[in-house]
Amino acid sequence: MLNSLQQRFWQIPSPIRYSLSWLLAISVAACYLYFSWHHFDDPTRRDGNRGHTYIDFGGQYLLGRMLICSQGQHLYQRPYQRTILEEAYPRQNESPGHQTSDAETLMLWFMGHDDEASGTSPSGPLYPPIQAFWFSALAMLPPQAAYRSLQILIVLGAFAAGLGMTFLFGRRLWWPLASVAVILFPGFASSLSLGQNSIFSLNILIWGWVFICRDQPVWGGMIWGLLAFKPDWAVAFFLVPLWTGRWRVALAMVASGLGQVILTLPVVGWHSWIDWLGVVRQAVQVSQVDEIWIIRSRDLFTLPRRWLALDASGGDAQLSRTATLVGWGLWLAVVGVTTGVVLWRRRRVRALIGVGPAFLFLAACLICIHAMYYDVLLAALPVFLLYWGPKFPSRICHALIGILVLAPAVPALKLGEPPTETACLLGLWMLSGWSWIKGNSAEEPPTK
């Protein structure tokens, strides 16, 4: 019966099927937007929703708002942050009788703390000053209006990413279906609800690769350099042009990133960048002991702490050191094996789609330090490159991709938050690497 339905579907004229695909894409996007729009509804609040009060959105908003309020020289200084937040998050919008204000709650979530003896330590979200400039347009709006606008932009970003995928694969992948696949991919729903920016990072990766595939390496590298607003991902994906010997891409990426840093200096000064490094150092320490951070991370470095040192804050220094060594071991193993396979397949290292580039992009996703559950969305590019490549490796890959897509449902089933996505990406990385070693790759350019 299923085969009969498939045959009838393919007998439908192509324009009608394409229209049905767009209807599906718009319907799926509307459903995701609706549920995320109401995900954090709170009838006890006067403004009806608390999504804009979480650090995922609030941290980005704060940096942009400080820039708008001419406080760029004090981006990571707590007294100035508190003043800006108290003005942007008025108490009359909160739940009556709530003791801790939205502004103070955000201050508690940020790195840093008030110290009466030594003043204040650098404080704030982990984003560098570049993010203040990227977010400044939205920060002109009140927090909730900016949060809603960002949610709409995230949905539009899914369609932009889908369009980039169609450029990579031509007529083999329709724009609406590629957009649906992006929306269904792990990490999208979380970023949409929280107002996170993973979809914009994914677009940077996709469109940079589109230009690289069309023999415009400088433009591709310049686009990838926009990842400077998330330096951990910029460093991870910088290895891809190094592994493939695309030196112009690497140089353009560095020039783009440094250019953004230099452009911020007249507004924020060097000291803001130094303060940001202080925030990063604090975050490295907190990420090793904070249970929520450990459970919701998806990077290899933090992975062993789930089982070895989840209670490291209790004082078991030996378990903490063991977890650190195991984490570094996993990280070095992925980097070392990937480099070895690249040297083995150096004559085919410039393949554009298929198991070769998928293997490299998966490695970059795995070695990013401090990757969170919503950052898994960036793995959509290598999964597409693998799945839609000239030689799809095996049925095991089908199974892993299926589990990967279903992984976000695991917490909803009250099964905790196992690192299912990380395990699937590791499996796909190993299978694509093995397939590449065996020679199942092709130098196939995208359809122009």
Major pleated sheet: 2 strands, antiparallel
- Count of DSSP-assigned helices: 21
Beta-strand percentage?
Answer: under 5%
* Shape call: globular
Q: What Rg, in angstroms, do the CA atoms define?
A: 23 Å
Task: List SSEs in N-to-C order.
Answer: HHHHHEEHHHHHHHHHHHHHHHH
Euclidean distance between termini CA atoms: 38 Å
Q: For the residues shown, what is the average pLDDT?
A: 87
Count up the domains: 2
Structure write-up:
- With 448 residues, the protein is an all-alpha fold.
- It has two domains: 51-145, no CATH class; 188-438, no CATH class.
- Helix content is 65%, strand content 1%.
- The chain has 21 helices and two strands.
- It has a two-stranded antiparallel ribbon with strand order 1-2.
- Strand 1 and strand 2 (119-120) form a beta hairpin.
- The longest helix has 40 residues, at 247-286.
- The chain is globular.
Q: Quick recap of the structure?
A:
By secondary structure, the chain is mostly helical.
Set down the secondary structure blueprint.
Elements: H1 2-11, H2 14-37, H3 55-68, H4 78-88, H5 102-109, E1 114-115, E2 119-120, H6 130-139, H7 143-169, H8 175-184, H9 188-194, H10 198-213, H11 217-224, H12 231-244, H13 247-286, H14 291-296, H15 305-308, H16 317-344, H17 355-367, H18 380-387, H19 395-406, H20 409-412, H21 420-438
Helix pairs in contact: 2-7, 2-8, 2-9, 3-6, 4-5, 7-8, 7-9, 7-10, 10-11, 11-13, 12-13, 12-17, 16-17, 17-18, 17-21, 19-21
